[in-house]
Amino acid sequence: MLVHKSVNDKNVNKMNVVMVHGGVETSCAPHYIKALRESALAGYNALGRGLVDAAEEAVMILEDCPLFNAGYGSVLNMDGEVEMDASVMDGGTGKFGAVAAIGCVAHPVSVARKVLEDTPHVLLAGAGATKFARSKGFPQINCVAPGMLEAWQRATDKMSRGILPNASLFTGLPEENGIAACDTVGCVVAHNGQTAAASSTGGSFLKLPGRVGDTPLIGGGIFASGRCAVVCTGLGEAFMETLTAAYVDSLLARGIHPQEAAEKAIERLNEKRGAPGGILVADSQNRYGAAHNTRSFPVAVVLGGSLAEDFSPRKIAVSDRR
Ligand code: GLY
Questions:
Q1: Would you state the pLDDT for residue 147?
Q2: Percent of the chain with pLDDT over 70
C-alpha cells in the first residue's frame, strides 16, 4: 500500500508512526535508503513489545550497518578510538537512559536502555559505562570499521604534515557525489497516544577523547513526552547550547504541528548557531514532521506498517545571520 502525504494532515492520521533517519549528510543512494527502510520496518515489527522496543530495534539495525556513524561504523576520535553516545526516552513515563563516550559494544542504544531500566541513574559515561555494559552481558567487540580507520589514518597523516584534512566533519570520509555521510542515527515512534525516541552516534570525527555530543543529553539532541518524541542530528554542540529537542516539545505544547515545529527549530538553529542539523518529530496524535538545513537528510517513515513512499523532510535555507 502506498501511503500519501495527506495522512500527515492535522487530526487525520490514525496510523502509528515509526520514523528513522541516518544522520544529516547521509547519501540518498539506494543502499542507504534500503537500510533506513529496513530499520523503520524492523521498528514497526517490534511495536507489539512496546514503543521503546520499537525505537531501540530500529536504531540497533543502523548500529550494525557500517554505512552509518553509530555502533560499528562510528567515527574515530583524535586518538584513533571509538567513543559512542546513545540514549532512549519513553514519552509515556518520562524515563530516560543514556550512555556517553562508551567503547567496544555493538549496541550502545541497548546499554542506554539498561541504564533506564536497571539503574537509579540516567546517564553513565566513559569507562564506567563500558564496565556497566559488561556487567549486563554485552560482549566486548571491535567497533572500528576498516573504512573509518583508513579515514582516520588519511586525516592524521595530513595533519602531521600541517595540512588540514578536507573531509566530512562527521565521518572524515572524502565526499562522494557531493555527500559525505553521515552523523547520528535516530528513531521516533508514536502509537496509541504514546511516544518514544532513541538515538545513537559515534559523534564527530577527530573529536577530543572524552568529548560528548547532544545525543545522550535530554532536551539537547533527544526528548520524548506525553506530547511528542524528538531526535536531532548535526553539530552536537549547537543542539546542546540551544536545547533544541526541548524547544520542539515546547512548540507542540503551544499547539504547533510537528512539521511546523521541526521547521521552526531548524530556523532557530540557523539564527542562533548557523550549524548543520536535522530533526524528526512524531506526536501523540500520530502526526509527524522533519526538517534540516543540509545537503541531504533521507528519512524513512512507516505508517501503520506501510512505507510512506513520498515523504521527504523540508529543507530550510541556511541563513547568513549568526
Ligand atoms: N550529533 C552528534 C554529535 O555531535 O555528537
A1: 87
A2: 89
Task: Output the pLDDT for position 247.
Answer: 98
Q: Which residues of the chain have pLDDT under 70?
A: 1-13, 165-182, 319-322
Counting the structural domains of the chain, the total is 1
Sheet with 222-224: strands ordered across: 222-224, 228-234, 277-283, 288-292, 314-315
In the prediction, which pLDDT does 6 show? 43
What are the E-state strand segments in 26-158?
Answer: 84-90, 95-102, 123-125
Q: What is the pLDDT of residues 229-287, one digit of tens each?
A: 999 999 999 999 999 999 999 999 999 999 999 999 999 999 999 999 999 999 999 99
321 lies in some domain: no
Q: Which residues pair with 283 in a beta bridge?
A: 228
Q: Ligand 1 centre from 153 Cα, in Å?
A: 21
Out of 204, 208, 244, give the residue to mutate to test ligand 1, the one with the largest number of ligand atoms within 8 Å of its CB: 204
Q: Give the C-alpha separation, 99 to 198, whole Å.
A: 12
* 8 Å CB contact between 192 and 14: no
Q: Which of 168, 205, 214, 292 to mutate to test the pocket of ligand 1 (most atoms within 8 A of CB)?
A: 214
Note if the pTM is more than 0.90. yes
**CATH code at position 306:** 3.60.20.30
Residue 241 backbone phi and psi in degrees, to 5: -70, -20
Confidence (pLDDT) at 32 = 94
Catalytic residue among 130, 184, 195, 201: 184
Q: Does 290 map to a domain? A: yes
In a domain, 3, yes or no: no
Ligand 1 environment, Cβ below 6 A: 183-184, 201, 203-204, 213-215, 233-236
Give yes or no: 26 in active site. no
Domain residue limits at 71: 13-315
Ligand 1 atom, smallest distance to 211 CA: 5
